Input
Amino acid sequence: MLNDVEALSDDAARELAQGYAGLVAGLGLPAGEPLLVLPNAEFFPDTFQADAPSVERLVARMQGYAALEALAIEVEVVGELAGSSAGSCGTGGCGSGACDVPAVQSSMPRLARAEGGYRLHVPADELSNPIVLTARLATSLGAVALVERHPEGAERVLDGTQAEVAAVALGFGVLLLEASYMYRKACGGPSVACATGLGLRELAWLFALSVAREGHSLRAALAELGTTQRALVKEAATLAAESRTLVRLLKDNPARVARGDFRLREGGSLWSRLFARRPQTKEARLDAALAALENGASVDELAELVGPTESR
Output
């Protein structure tokens, strides 16, 4: 399904890197501080009942991950909660729209100022889709972070994609990646849905930059991603590995990156550098292979790196 995803040009990659760097600098996020939030039981251990109390617990947990727990965020589920009338593909409910990705509600702002904090409106029809729900909650928290921490946040938040970039910077990249490309076999045949403003390749590149900047485990993230997302994140991670000075500046001087003072593809990728100086002893090759695996190398790349064992 990769052919369905438009390729990201170098100019677009540069523009995204500049925007990400400017946002990181404006938010004042120290390198290594944001978590890598994964959609698993470690990060989301609570039972979700698709009701208002469950959403409140979920928002509170995600606030903590985003280091926004000091803010008061009131959660209100709007619309009718799913009940016995909600259909599904298995019950012939396609005519009811049960197969559709919940649309962003335009009649009511998702996030609004409230006394002492914020009020977050969550459409009830999102409660049945955990991928869409968590991605849009992450984006809402990205918007809160922009308003609270960025000197230009009030203006930037008017562009919904800026809140998504902020969500990636806060550690929610995997959640947005999953929502950006949802492949499924529905009643009318296979389809791909997107519940994000940014596309999959754009989010993959932003996520690769955030993983490199924060020093997160790419392997852990890849284990939680769908097939198409994994392929594009690996591709983006290779570009990040070929842009070592860019990654260093994102850690040490993101404002310089925001000004466009960096290069892409300044050197060989991680894999090419490792292969060029493949260790000669079995133990050293295995150590190098483990390091490559941690950074998301494929099975074929690992086999090439390890190579044949030395003769005795």
User: Anything to note?
Assistant: Confidence is low (pLDDT under 50) at residues 84-99, 275-279. The two ends are 46 Å apart (CA to CA). Residues 2-83+103-258 form one domain. The chain has two domains: 2-83+103-258, 270-306.
